[in-house]
Amino acid sequence: MAGEAGTAPAVDPADQLARLGRSWTWLLGAAIATLVPGILALVWPDVTLHVLAVLIGLYLLVIGGFRFVAVFGRDSDRVPGLIVAVLCVLGGVLCLRNPLQTISALSLIVGAVWLVSGIVSLYSAIATKNMPHRGVVMAVAVLGIVAGIVVLALPAESARALTRLLGLWLVLMGLAEAAAALAWRSALRRAGITGHDASGPAA
């Protein structure tokens, strides 16, 4: 009977998620997932509230998935990242659960998710002193906080106004996240790392 010497080693799902979460391409994917709905909202300003709620709900679900995987790429405290991921998924579910909700309800959900996510991400960036490109991560977090405050403080009176407002902030945040992903790629190349063996920036 053949021995077990030739048996392939078991694949650790957590290790695979960690490698994926440390990849700059994964961070860039999250940025694209933010940019796409923002661009759609800006070029399609007459979208109905129903479609907008579905679009934002799907965006939050996808971003929640990206941030969940990114958590495994961190060597520091993962709890803040998990909080952000769960919050995004919860917000997405709330948007999709009742797509015929009011404009104010949709604004409240999106604004609250952005505000809390930005605060948690900023806390992570401040607490992790050795984080690569810490300033870029902090800038993205501050942008999220400002976006959340603006959406909550300036209630839109129509679906068109809300679409333009959310579209603008999604594009700005997507561009900032893309800059963070490219900065992380630059850091990996300067360090001579071709794989994903270094801890990535906080989500």
UniProtKB/TrEMBL annotation:
<feature type="transmembrane region" description="Helical">
    <location>
        <begin position="50"/>
        <end position="72"/>
    </location>
</feature>
<feature type="transmembrane region" description="Helical">
    <location>
        <begin position="79"/>
        <end position="99"/>
    </location>
</feature>
<dbReference type="InterPro" id="IPR052712">
    <property type="entry name" value="Acid_resist_chaperone_HdeD"/>
</dbReference>
<protein>
    <submittedName>
        <fullName>DUF308 domain-containing protein</fullName>
    </submittedName>
</protein>
<feature type="transmembrane region" description="Helical">
    <location>
        <begin position="166"/>
        <end position="184"/>
    </location>
</feature>
<keyword id="KW-0472">Membrane</keyword>
<dbReference type="Pfam" id="PF03729">
    <property type="entry name" value="DUF308"/>
</dbReference>
<feature type="transmembrane region" description="Helical">
    <location>
        <begin position="24"/>
        <end position="44"/>
    </location>
</feature>
<feature type="transmembrane region" description="Helical">
    <location>
        <begin position="135"/>
        <end position="154"/>
    </location>
</feature>
<keyword id="KW-1133">Transmembrane helix</keyword>
<feature type="transmembrane region" description="Helical">
    <location>
        <begin position="105"/>
        <end position="123"/>
    </location>
</feature>
<keyword id="KW-0812">Transmembrane</keyword>
<dbReference type="InterPro" id="IPR005325">
    <property type="entry name" value="DUF308_memb"/>
</dbReference>
